[in-house]
Amino acid sequence: MGIDPEKARFLEKFGSDYGYPTSPRSIDEIRATDFKRLNDVVYLDHAGATLYSESQIQSVFNDLSRTLHGNPHSQSNCSSTARDFIGEARRQVLRFFNAPPGEYTCIFTSGATAALKLVGETFPWSSRSVFAYTTENHNSVLGIREYALSKGASSFAVDIAETIGESSFKMIPRNALKRDVCGKSEHDGEVHNLFAFPSECNFSGERFDLGIVSMIKEGSYEFPEASQVQSSKWMVLVDAAKGSATSPPDLSEHKADFVVVSFYKIFGYPTGLGALIARNQSANLLKKTYFGGGTVAASIADLDFHKRRESIEEYLEDGTVSFLSIASLQHGFKILDDLTMPAIRRHTTALASYVRDTLSNLKHENGIHVCTLYGLHEHKEVGPTVSFNLRRSDGSWIGYREVEKLASLRNIQLRTGCFCNPGACVKFLGLSHSDLLSNIESGHVCWDDYDILRGNPTGAVRVSFGYMSTFEDAKKLLKFIEESFASPSSFHGHNVGVERAAKTVCLKSITVYPVKSCAGFSVDTWPLCDTGLLHDREWAVKSPSGEILTQKKVPEMGLITAAVDLKRGLLVVESPRCDRELRIDIASTTPPRPAQSFIFAVFSFRRAADRWFYNAVARPCTLVRMTGGDGEIRLNFANEAQFLLVSAESVADLNARLHHVEVDPSRFRPNLVVSGGDPYEEDRWRSLVIGDASF
């Protein structure tokens, strides 16, 4: 069987970098032997968590089966064994970062976030201190700001505008933050500042120049009011949680004061274990308040006395470290040593470059680019991460949640949203503070489904590659995007839905669901509006905590039937649990335009309606209605889109595959049921016309 022509072109360009050509095992052998569990799954969220290999876990199991580990704070032989493993693991971590052992110490934590928290809570802040950080930083770095501000220090984000020659750069500060703090820390000693940046942005994949470390410490930068900050002592923190998987900082060359890492992001296992790699002279300045087991040489229960241990790691590690997880690190590092980090970097970069190049050239038939890529800069290196959003042929944005859900159907696992990096999200999406506040007022929070607000994306799609990723993974991703979101020439100039409908397909039923998750009612004709079918999912029932009730958690919702009488202007709701039907005058309960500039308002009804629904579902709840102000976008309580369409033939095909049960189309709660086509052909329709309405 001949080689795939597309792969041949890929290898012609990237063959010297892809697949570990000089390693004992090729990428195909690695996937076949160590990642059999992937099967047809395309895993592309290595920036979130990379995968452990099967041989790695087997080696961990074998070690734990043969070796007896005791609490390292005891004096037994098995405890001594555990201490030996911990000591060797510390040395392995330092070697990984090329950190001189006499200059740096490895302090184990529960993860990179815990390491950042440790720096923040022990840093010697004063009212004259400054905490500065690049705009593109993870929330876990931004959290250090709370410690700084609580001590009266100043804080601000900066954009690194440009490098000035080879030894200086320019910083552009954003809003300066400072709080009025009672009893703020004042001292006449040396003032310490902290500058934090990631080695690699987890949103865009942009790699930061590690020369920033020495430039900051030496004061080689241009900065407004530079005399105020350059006269203080700067320490530098590097968040290497993302970058270490392919390009760990070299601490023999770039002498950062603090570096944080999580090991599951490097080789998948163990989770819940990270490290703070601290420069000894900087770690000695950290001021710790709490002491736990193992961190003190002596303490007296009823006297204000304790003596801390002298070594940095013992001083900063509270309680018993995760010694079994620490013992397993050697097997993860062995994989990296066998492949070598430069080879991993070249391999993953080749895949990311291939995807970027292909996406940047993908266009709709009318010439509109399908993909908008983020983080491309001619003067910056980019890691194995590709972040983007997709557009339709008319230029409108496709929501990232739609992309993620369709990708899941293809067994493609990727990440969407802002990736806990609000600064990068704002920067690359071009959002203003007013945009952010409006989005929050609209109900948008992390991990929700509000992917498009006022016509613009609130986040992005991110794919990221790991050492075990393959060309086939990248190709399946690109095929999915092209087939699902690009307008191919076969659809140019005519409407697939119209063509089929004109021949054989007809509309079989229309169903409106006025109250979310309640039964709807069928009609022969029904008006359309800007939210879909008029009054469809315009009402919902929410719990006292604000959660919208659905049949998934409250099956009693399925017993409630809701219908709209347009002639009388009534919403009529019935339940076998209630003696009388509930009637609500639609016009008289339309809420006024909200005073603030919200995109929508949720309007609550009178207590009589709430009592009726309490009887219907046997729990406290409130009936609410979604509506928009004049001239604003109107929404409803739909999960994903204004309409759900299924075909009778698709349901019939499903029933033919089932045993002892038959599913009715209404089981899927569709608005529209069509009949006359082939099973599942509706998945390929690009548009549809019913009467005079185009969908």
From TrEMBL:
Residues 593-695 form the MOSC domain. GO terms for biological process: Mo-molybdopterin cofactor biosynthetic process; monocarboxylic acid metabolic process. InterPro entries: Aminotrans_V_dom, MoCF_Sase_C, MoCo_sulfurase, MOCOS_middle, PyrdxlP-dep_Trfase, PyrdxlP-dep_Trfase_major, Pyrv_Knase-like_insert_dom_sf. The keyword Membrane does not apply. GO terms for molecular function: molybdenum cofactor sulfurtransferase activity; molybdenum ion binding; pyridoxal phosphate binding. Gene3D superfamilies: Type I PLP-dependent aspartate aminotransferase-like (Major domain). SUPFAM superfamilies: MOSC N-terminal domain-like, PK beta-barrel domain-like, PLP-dependent transferases. Keywords: Molybdenum cofactor biosynthesis, Pyridoxal phosphate, Transferase. PANTHER family: MOLYBDENUM COFACTOR SULFURASE, MOLYBDOPTERIN COFACTOR SULFURASE MOSC. This is Molybdenum cofactor sulfurase. It comes from Genlisea aurea.
